[in-house]
Design goal:
The complex is a heterodimer of chains A (486) and B (91). With 486 residues, chain A is an alpha+beta fold. Chain A has 2 domains: 16-126, Glutaredoxin; 158-483, no CATH class. Chain A has helices at 26-30, 32-41, 67-71, 97-104, 127-138, 155-161, 175-182, 205-215, 222-232, 239-244, 258-262, 277-293, 328-331, 360-371, 391-399, 404-413, 419-422; strands spanning 16-21, 44-48, 61-62, 76-77, 79-84, 87-93, 95-96, 116-117, 120-121, 146-148, 192-196, 201-204, 250-256, 315-317, 340-353, 383-389, 451-455, 463-471, 480-483. In chain A, the strands form 5 sheets. In chain A, strands 13, 14, 15, 16, 17, 18 and 19 form a 7-stranded mixed beta sheet that branches. Chain A has a 5-stranded mixed beta sheet with strand order 3-2-1-5-6, covered by helices on one side. Chain A is elongated, with a radius of gyration of 30 Å. With 91 residues, chain B is of the alpha/beta class. Chain B has a domain at 29-88. Chain B has 2 helices and 4 strands; from the N terminus they run E-E-H-E-H-E. Chain B has helices at 40-53, 72-81, and strands at 3-5, 29-34, 57-62, 84-88. Chain B has a 3-stranded parallel beta sheet with strand order 3-2-4, sandwiched between helices. The chains are: A alpha+beta (486), B alpha/beta (91). The interface between A and B is medium-sized, with 44 and 18 residues. Strand 10 of chain A pairs antiparallel with strand 1 of chain B.
Amino acid sequence: MTGNPDTAPAPTLPNGLVIIVKEECETCQTVVPVLQQLDDATELTVYTQDNASFPSAPTAVHDADLAVSWHHEIETVPTVIVVRNGVEVERTVGWLRPEWERLTGIDGLGEGLPVMRPGCGSMSVDPDLVDMLRVRFGASDLAARRVDVADAEDVMEMMFNRGWTDGLPVVPPTEERVMAMLAGTSRAGSDIVATVPPDLVDISVEKVAIAAVMAGCKPEYLPWVLTAVEAACTDEFNMHGLLATTMPVGPVIVCSGPGTRAIGMNSGGNALGQGNRANLTIGRALQLVIRNFGGGRPGEVDRAAHGSPAKISFCFAEADDTSPYGRLAGELGIDDGVDALTLFAGEGPHCLVDQLSRTPESLVRSFALKLQTVNHPKLIMMFDAILVMGPEHARVFADAGWDREQIVAGISEHLNRSGAELVRGADGIAEGVPEAFGDAESLPKFRPGGLMLTYAGGGAGLFSQIIGGWVNGDKGSKPVTRTVAY
Amino acid sequence: MPVLLDPTSEQTLVERERLARPSTLEGLTVGLLDISKPRGDVFLDRIEERLVGIGANVKRYAKPTFAKPAPVDLRHQIATECQVVIEALAD
């Protein structure tokens, strides 16, 4: 796919007038008589990008590898450059007679031609070529070890064999793709993003970009992936513990802000499911970082008893633009209009069906009944949960004028239960809270702030989703919220 | 021929040989590390009884939480105070 990078210095332009053209461009064809006029009158060098024999006269130099166009940042053809002592003095693009006459100092150019014609795109900025050119002329920026794939080897199978995949195929991380990915952030490829567990090695932006390519991300998703990696690799989030636990949990990424819409994330129908590239690949890129770079693999440090499909990727956007009660990041201190994500140590979603409640009073009781079951109905305070409320349920609260605080308080009120109900042995069930809590009159299901409200889902369906958490607080994992750095 | 970029951390791990297994525990100091899972102490209490019975000295340690790796200071303390360590892993 690539040869060795061309590390030769930028070609020096010859003195006089330099004009870069391509045959495919109609404006370039239009100005051929002008090129002949200039060739007679001054010191002229014409570079042609596509057809070596265009124009037929004057004879052009073929910029076959586009080195001249690339290094001299030609974006439009024709481009006219005035060169003195090997240095560019001035340039103009397209055809504009007065401008060409001023630059060349020659009057009466292109008689009979229209006064003005816009130029065309230079081949050196052609989207189909630019990634290849970036590698050809700038690959030395990439620090990762190069892995040659043998001719007889199937690249997809080779990546499976090396253990680089989560069980699904990954996109081959070629230099072209990784350099294109790096264009998605203003950060340098060599910047250190985080120290990744379990191996505790510093990861660079470039290595995150490699994982993002493999996961299937587009470059514009990279800032979200970088932010997710940063958030995951904090002491508070405790990615090592999340990986090592026998529980079926992984990093759940809740994204919000205008940037989610700019990159096409899904916060509507099927937001937690398949079908949206940004949702799926951002979550997957984080997991590939943990697997391939951090060394966290199932059966090794990952000791999950069952695991969960959510551990392949679990990332979605909140519909914060239409939410009747704001967004989770707002509750956690992020200003409106700022892109942010929250990482939560959670399991796969569970559906709450309630198609009959039309009052907040009825609906909070329904939610509470379902939320009791997070991990075990007799275990409390140890686990947080995210409630992903669908629009049809949220409307019931909005119509009654309930805000976020009232909804959470309303649900929480119906989650309180006596120690006698929850204590070990109660109801003939050995599991439960320790005997010391047996006399408590009222015990909450969640610690303060442990029930987090979000808003996403399709417009039809009186359903909501519960995402149960892992061990919370200092002993386990705390939700981590970060603004997205571009 | 495609050239790919290595997604791993490119680390070469240093392999260290384990210490030789002691032929007897008599007179040695054995560290018992409780990872703080429920009832790990029940298991370790019984192990302590057995070890003391065969002439070993026992020191007890505990991780602050089972959900995180043992702190570096704790690992260092165990390594300097004991010749042998036993970890109670789970419920």
